[in-house]
Amino acid sequence: MSGRQVNAWAAPLLWLSLLLLLALGGDWLEPLLRWSEPDARRVLYPQADLLTLLVRHVQVVAIASGLAVVIGVGAAILVTRPGGRDFLPLVAQFASMGQTFPPVAVLALAVPVLGFGTWPIIVALLLYGLLPIVRNTLAGLEGVDPAVQEAARGMGMGGAQRLWQVELPLAAPVILAGIRTSVTVNIATAALGATVGASNLGAPIIAGIVNNNTAYILQGALMIGLLALVVDSVFARLLPARQ
Amino acid sequence: MSRREAPLNRVVMALSLVATATWLALPLASVAPNRIVPGTAHTATDLLGWPLALLACLPLVALMALSRRLDRVRCHLALALVLLLLMALPGWLAIASQWLVDPELPQARLGIGAAWWLSLFWLSLMLIELRSRLALVGWRAALLPVVVATAWWLQGAWLGSLALGQELDGRRGDFLEAVVDHLLLVGGAVGASLVLGALIALAMRQSPRVERLGFAVLNFLQTIPSLALFGLLLAPLAWLAARFDWLSAIGVSGIGWAPAFLALLGYSLLPMVRNTHVALSEVDPGVLEAARGMGMGRGQVFRQVRLPLALPVVIEGVRITTVQAIGLTAVAALIGAGGLGSFIFQGLGQAAMDLVLLGALPILAMALVADALLGALARRLDHRRLASPGGAP
Amino acid sequence: MIELKGVTKRFGDETAVDAISLTVKPGELCALVGTSGCGKSTTLRMINRLIEHDEGEIHIDGRPIREFDGRLLRRRIGYAIQSTGLFPHWTVARNIGLVPRLLKWPAARVRERVEELMGLLGLPVDQFADRYPAQLSGGQAQRVGVARALAADPDILLMDEPFGALDPITREGLQAELRDLQSRLRKTIVFVTHDMDEALALADRLVVMKAGHIVQQGTPLALLRAPADDFVASLLGGDDRGLKEAAITQVAERMLPLSPRLLPQARVHRDATLRQALAVMFREHADRLAVVDDEAMPIGELSLRRIVGAGRDGSGES
User: What residue range is the signal peptide (chain C) (predicted)?
Assistant: First the structure.
C-alpha cells in the first residue's frame, strides 16, 4: 500500500526536484546552458536568484487563482440557488466574455489604475482564470442528476445540507478539473507580468529577449514549464482517473 | 413571457443601483496639463454640481422602477433606456472637455475616469441581460452594439482634447499600419493553422500512434509560456537566416514577423487540431451507420455527412484560436513583430498610459468582434440545436 | 429471396453468429428475436455487407452477395435503424431522397418520389419537407427513417429495432402502419427486435436466436403452440403465451354461424382478436358473444368453449 502511495506521488516529486535543481543549481548548470549560448558573456541569469523569482511567481499565481476559485465557485453556487437564479445567464455570459479579453490587454488596462508591479498581473490572471472555474462549477452543479436532488429533498435535507452533502461532492471532480485548467494556464500567463515590472519567472525571459541571450530565456521557460508540470501532476493525483 | 404578474428583475435592479453609486462616487474624468504628469480627478458631482449630477441619474432611477415589474413592454422600454445611456456616454466626456480643459494649454488632455469605464461595464451587462430576457438573436442582437458604436463615432468631433485622441492624432499612419499588421499576423497564423491543423487531424484519424504523438507535442508546445516561445525562436531563426540567403531575402530574421508567425502557428495548432479531431470523431455513429447502410461510399460519407456535421465544431476551434491569436500577437510586439502590441509596450516604457490604451482597446474590441462573428457563424451552421416547434407524434 | 447457409461471424475469439441457415421468402416479413448480444443485429448487418461474414454463404435472389459491390448492394436494399440515423444537417425531403440521388435519378423524379413517400407515411409535404430532424418528434423521425429506407423502391428492407426508442402508443401506431404498408407493398423484410409482442404482431416467420444460434423458427402460432425449449417458452411469455396466441388470432377464425338461439347482448367485431373477445366476456360476465361486421350487423357468434379451442386440440378447458 505505502509502496503504491510513493509511486502515486512519483511524478510530482520528480518534476519538483527538477524544478528545485534549476532554481538552486547555480554554477554547475553553467556548462549546460553554455551549450545554448556559446558566445555570451554570462549564461546564468544574474539579476535576482531564481529561487526568489520562483517564489514570487508561485505567490502571484496562488493569489490570483485563490481569488478566482473563491469568486468563481462562490458566484456559480450563488446563481444556482433559488434566490440567485436570475443572475445565472449574466454570470455565465460574463465569464465567457472574460476569456475573450486578451491577458495582455487586461494587463495594460490595469496598469493605469493599479500602477506598475504585481497587482496588474494578479487582476489579469484573475479575470482570465475565472471562466474555466465558473463554467465547470456551473456544469458540475447543473449536472447533478435531478433524481438525486429530488431524493435528497424527499428525505428532508435542507438547502445547505443538499449543497454540502450532495451537490458539491458530486460536482467536485468537474470543479477540480476547471481549477486545474485555470491554474496551469495562469502559471504560463503569469510570465507576462514581467512586462509591467512584476518580478517573477518572466523576468529572465524578458531579459533574454532584450539582451539576445537564449540561455536566460531557457532558464525562465524551463522553470515555468516544470512548475506547470508539478502543479498539473498534483492535480492529476487529486482527481480520479479520467475515463 | 409568462402571463403571470411579471416578477421583479433583480439583475437590472442591482446593476442600476451599482451604476448610480459608481456615477456619484467615482471620478468621471481627469485633466492633465501634459502627457506625463498624472491628472487631477473630477467626479460627476464636482463637474456638474449635485443637482445636475442627480438629474443625470434619472434614467437609472427609471430603470430601477421598470425592473420592479419587468414584463415584455417594460423590458423593451428598459432596453431603449440602456441603449440611450450607452450612446450618451461620450457626451459626458465632451462636457468635461468643454468645462475642464484649458484651451490655452495645447498639451492639456482629458483622461477617462473609473466612473466612466465602470458605467460602460454595468450598462453593457444590463444590455446583455435585457437581450437574453427578450431572447433577441441574429441580426437584431447584432444591431445593438452597432447602434452604440455609430452614436459614439458621430460624437467623435467633440472629443478633441481626449488624451486617447491626442495620442492617436500624432500617429494616425502608424496606428493604421499597426492594425493592418496585427490583422495580417492573426489572419495568416489562423489560416495556416486551419490548413495544417486539418491535415494533422486527418493524419491522426489514420493511426492512433500519430494521434498520441501529435497531442503530446502540441500539449507540450502549449505549456511553454508565450513570451518564452517567441524568445526561443529568436536565435534559431537568426541562425537560419544567416545560413540561407533565400530565407533572409523573404524577410526571415531573428526578430520581426517570422518568429512571431511561427510561435503563433504553434500555439494555434493545439486548439485547432483538438477541435477538428473531436469534431470528426464525435459524429453520431448511428448517422454514419445509416449513411453506409444506404450505400454511400467512404468519400461520400466524409464529404456529405462527416464534414458538414463537423463544421460547426471546427468553426468553434477557429473562434478560440482567433481570439487567442489576437492576444498573443500583442505579445509578439516584444520581438519586433509590430502590431498594436507595440503601442502597449511603448506606452508602458514611457509611462504614457494613454498610449497603452491606444494599443489595448482596439485589441479588446478586435477580440470581442471576432468572438461574436465566429460564434454566430458556428451557430448558424449548426442545425442540431434548432428548437423543436413541438409537433405531434 | 434471402438465403443464409451456414453463416458464421467471429469478432476476435468470440463467435457472434455460429453457422446459421435461414431462408426468407419474397414478400415475407421475418422477425429475428432474442436477448441482446444473441447475434441478431450482426446477422442483419451481414445481409447488406455492413459486416462481412467469415464462413458460409449469403445469397440474394440466388446470387451470392460477394458478387455485388457492397455499396451498390446497399443502395438496392432498404435500411432503417433504431436511432433513425437521419442526417441532422439535411432537411426531411433531402434525407428521404438520399438513395435515389445516390442512384443518380433525375431531380424531378427524386422530388416526385419523395412527395409520394411522404404521402404514404402520413407526413404532409408542405408541413414537413423543409424541417430538420431536430424539429421532429420521435415518431415522425422514425417515419422519415422508414420513408428513406423505401425511397428507391427496394425489394428487400432490413430493419434494426426501428421502433425501439418510441413510447408504447406511438410504437403500436407505427406497427399497425407497417403491417398496412406491407400488405400493400409486399416487400421482403428482415426485422430485428427484442420485443416479442412486436415480433408476434408483425412477423410471418419468427426466428429465435440465442448465443449466435437459431433455436427455433416458424410461424408465430407454431412457436406459441410448440416452443422448442424452456428458453423459447420463457421468451414467448411463459404461461402468458396462451394470451399471446389469443392476441394474434382473429375472432373471424373461431366464429360459428348464427344459431337459432337467442343472440347474446355482448358483441365483438369480426376483426378483433380472441384476446379482445375474452376481455369483453370478462367485462360483460358473458360466455357467449355476438360477432358483428363493420355495419354492426351480427354475422356469427362465439362461445368461451370455442375461444379456448375445446374440441379442436383438447388443451383448452381448465
Answer: none
- Looking at chain C, the domain(s) classified CATH 3.40.50.300 span 2-244
- Fold held by C250-308: CBS-domain (3.10.580)
Q: Which residue of B305, B385, B389 is in closest CB contact with C87?
A: B305
pLDDT digit string, tens, across residues B191-207: 999 999 999 998 988 88
Q: Is residue A10 part of a domain?
A: no
Q: Are residues B213 and B90 in the same domain?
A: no
What whole-number distance in Å separates Cα of residue B278 and Cα of residue B280? Answer: 6
* Separation between Cα atoms, residue C262 and residue B189, nearest integer Å: 94
- Please give the model's pTM, rounded to 2 decimal places: 0.77
The pLDDT, as a whole number, for residue B3 is 46
Chain A's closest residue to B353, CA to CA, is: A112
Pairwise CB contact (< 8 Å): C134 & B383: yes
Residue B380 falls inside a structural domain: yes
Rounded to an integer, what distance in angstroms lies between the CA atom of residue B23 and that of residue B21?
A: 5
DSSP E strand boundaries for chain A: none
Of the candidate ranges A16-30, C6-20, C203-217, the one whose mean pLDDT is the lowest: A16-30
Q: Is B243 on the interface with C (CB under 8 A)?
A: no
C-alpha distances out from residue B340 to A57, B211, B253, B285, C4, Å: 27, 36, 21, 46, 72
| CATH superfamily, with its number, for domain C2-244 | P-loop containing nucleotide triphosphate hydrolases (3.40.50.300)
Closest CA relative to residue C25, chosen from C276, C209, C285, C204? C204
B202 and B80 belong to one structural domain: no
Q: Measure CB to CB from residue C88 to each of B383, B389, B393 and give the nearest one.
A: B383
Across the interface, whether the CB atoms of A101 and B223 are under 8 A apart is answered: no
Query: Would you list the DSSP string of C192-224?
Result: EES-HHHHHHH-SEEEEEETTEEEEEE-HHHHH
Domain count, chain A: 1
- Looking at every residue in chain C, the average pLDDT score rounds to 87
Measured between CB atoms, does A111 come within 8 Å of chain B?
A: yes
Q: pLDDT by residue (tens digit) across A32-45?
A: 666 666 666 666 66
Residue A218 with chain B: CB contacts under 8 Å: 232
Q: How far is B286 from chain A (nearest CA, A)?
A: 22
Is C140 within 8 Å of B393 when comparing Cβ atoms? Answer: yes
Q: Grid coordinates 360459428 are at which residue?
A: C256
Could you tell me if B32 and B72 lie in one domain?
yes
CB atoms within 10 A of CB C68: 17
Q: What is the residue range of B24's domain?
A: 10-165
What is the rounded CA–CA span in Å between residue B264 and residue B88?
Answer: 39
CB contact under 8 A, B393 and C138: yes
Boundary (domain end) residue, out of B165, B192, B215: B165
Cβ of residue A194 closer than 8 Å to a chain B Cβ:
yes
Query: Cα(B15)–Cα(B9) distance, rounded to whole angstroms?
Result: 10
